[in-house]
Amino acid sequence: MRRRLLTAFNGLLALIALVSMPWLGWVEAGRQGYSVTSEVATRYARDVLYRADKTAAQARDTVARLDAAGFDACSVPELKLMGHLDLSSSYIQGLGRIQNGLVQCSSVNTLKFDLGKDGYRSPSGAIVHSTVTYGSQAPGEVMALQWKNFIVFINRDLPLDTWTGSLNVELGVFQMDRPASSGPEVARGDVKRVWLTHLAGLGDTSFIDGGRIVAVVRSTQFRIAAVAAIPIMEFETRRNAIAFRLVPAGALAGLVAAAAIVSLGRRQRSLAAALRSGLRQKEFFLQYQPIIALTNGQCVGAEALMRWRRATGELVGPDLFIPVAEQSSLMTSMTQRVFELVQSDAGPWLADHPDFHIAINLSAVDFHSITLVNTLDKFMHDTCACPQNLILEITERSLMDVGVARDVIHALHERGYNIAIDDFGTGYSSLSYLQSLQLDILKIDRSFVETIGMRAPTSNVVNHIIAMARDIGMRIIAEGVERTEQAEHLTEHGVQYAQGWLFGRPTTFEEIKDMIKIPSQKLT
Ligand code: C2E
Ligand code: CA
Ligand code: CA
Q1: How far is the CA of 289 from the centre of ligand 1 (A)?
Q2: Residues 6+ apart with CB under 8 A from 1
Q3: Ligand 3 mean position to 470 CA, how many Å?
C-alpha cells in the first residue's frame, strides 16, 4: 500500500515537473513581454515629456529676456528682439505683447488681434490659452502661454512629434492641477486624465488599461505629466515571440526533470527491494569503532556501525542505505537486525563486562513505537547484559518530532538505559530542550571537532558546546578525533570520551576485545 502510494506520489511529482516547466516558460514570456512593452511606452512618454518641458522652459526664458530688456511695448528694438528670439528658439512659433486679451504686436507682424479670455492660470504663473489662431497657422494648431504682458505662441503638436514606431501609439500631455473633467493639453489619440491617478506619488508608472499598456511619467520641472499608450497587441506579439523560445525550452527541462524523478524513484524502489532481500539473506554486519576514555586511553566502549555486503560483493555504507530504509519503512527491521548482530557478536561477553558499553544508532522511527522497548527487553533477557552495557544514540535532527519520542525516551530511562544525542550541533536544539529530555550523553559532531586548532571562525563553538553540556550535567563523547592536538584540547576542556581515526577505525568486535587489554598509546 505504502509502496503504491510512493509510486503514485513519484508519478504526480513527475507530472507536475512536466506541466509546470513549460507553464513557467509561458509566465516568464509574459513577464518579459510586458516589461519590454512597458519600457517602450515609458520611453515614448519620456520623449513627449522632454519636448513639453523644453518648450515650456524656452517659453519662460524668452519672456524673461524680453522682460529684462525693458523696451517700450511694441517699440522697434522690442520687435527686433522678439524676431531674434523667435528665430533662435526651436520650440517657439512667435512672441508678442498682450493687453486685456488683445495682442498688441508680435514677432510675425504689428497687427493687433483678439486672443479671447478662455485662458486658465497654471501653477508656474502662466496663463494658458489652449487653442488660438496665430499668423498663417491653421486654427487650433497653436497654443499660447502668457506671463505678465508677454505672450508666447507654441505649436501644439511639437511635444508629440516624436518617433513611435507605430501610428497606433497614443500620446498626450496633461496639466496635473486641472479639474478631473478636463482633457489633455495636447494629445494624439484617446488619452485619459484618469490615468494620472496611477502615479500616486511615483515619478513614473505603467499598467494595463482598456486593451492598452499605458505609461505615465511626471515632469520634475513643471506640474505636467506625459502619457503613452501602446495597443496590447504589441505586447502579445512580443510575448508570443519570447514564448516561442521559452516554452519549448521549459518543456524540454520538464521532460528531463520528470525523467530524473521517475528514474530516481525507480532506483529508490529497486534499492528498497534489494535492502529487503539483503535483510532476508543476512547480508548486513556490524563494525565497531572504539570509544576511549581521554583521561587514561582505556577503550571503554564501541559504536556499532552497520555495513552491507551485497551478493555481488559490493560493500555499501550506511550513508547510502539508511535513508532508503527510513523512507521505505524498513528501519524497524534494520534496527532489530542490529540488536541480533550485537547479540551474536558480543552478547554473552557483555554480561561479564558490565563496565563496557556498545553504542547503537537509532532512527527517528524507532522512537515512534514501543517496539524498540520490547526489542531491548528481549535483548537483555537473552544476553543477561545490563542496561549500562548499551548507549542508545539518537541524532539531534530525529528529535525534532519530540512529542512522539518523549514516551519512548521516558520508558528507556525507567529501565536504566543511557541515551546519547548524536551529531550534536547539526540541528537546532536549545539548552532547555535538551534539559527537558534528560539525555545522558552528548556526542559532539565531527564537523566541530575538525575546527580545533584551525583558527576557523567556528572553532570556538566546540568550547561552548562542552561548557553547555557540563552545565547541564551531560557526559561528552567527541566524534571524529583524528589528531593528537584535538585529543589534547578536548582533554584540557574536560571532555571524558572520544572516538575517531586517531584511536581506531571501525573494525571487528574481536579486535575491540583485544584493545581493552592494551590502553591506547595515542594520548601520551
Ligand atoms: P555516526 O553515527 O555519526 O557515525 C560516525 C561516522 O563517522 C561513521 O561513519 C564512522 O565511520 C565515521 N568516523 C568515525 N571516526 C571518524 C574520523 O575520525 N574521521 C572521519 N572522517 N570519519 C569518522 P559510517 O560508519 O559511514 O556511518 C555513517 C552514519 O550512518 C552514522 O553516523 C550513523 O548516523 C549512520 N549509521 C551507521 N550505522 C547505523 C545503524 O546501525 N543504524 C542507524 N540508524 N544509523 C546508522
Ligand atoms: Ca552515532
Ligand atoms: Ca555522529
Answers
A1: 9
A2: none
A3: 19
Quote the cell numbers at residue 194.
Answer: 484618469
* 90-110 residue pLDDT tens: 888 899 999 888 889 988 877
Q: Give the 3-state secondary structure of 302-334.
A: EEEEEEEECCCCCEECHHHHHHHHHHCCCHHHH
447 CA to centre of ligand 3 in angstroms: 10
Give yes or no for residue 338 CB within 6 A of ligand 1: yes
Considering Cα of 441, then 444, then 445, then 446, what sign does the dihedral take? negative
Closest ligand to residue 325's CA: 1
Tens of pLDDT along 311-360? 888 899 999 999 999 988 899 999 999 999 999 999 889 999 999 999 99
Is residue 102 within 8 Å of residue 113, measured between CB atoms? yes
* Alpha carbons 286 and 51: distance in angstroms, whole number: 84
Which residue, judged by its Cα, is nearest atom 20 of ligand 1? 480
The amino acid at 387: P
Ligand closest to CA 499:
1
Give how far the C-alpha of residue 322 lies from the chain's centroid of Cα atoms, to the nearest Å: 31
Using most ligand atoms within 8 A of CB, pick from 361, 368, 391, 442 the residue to mutate for ligand 1: 361
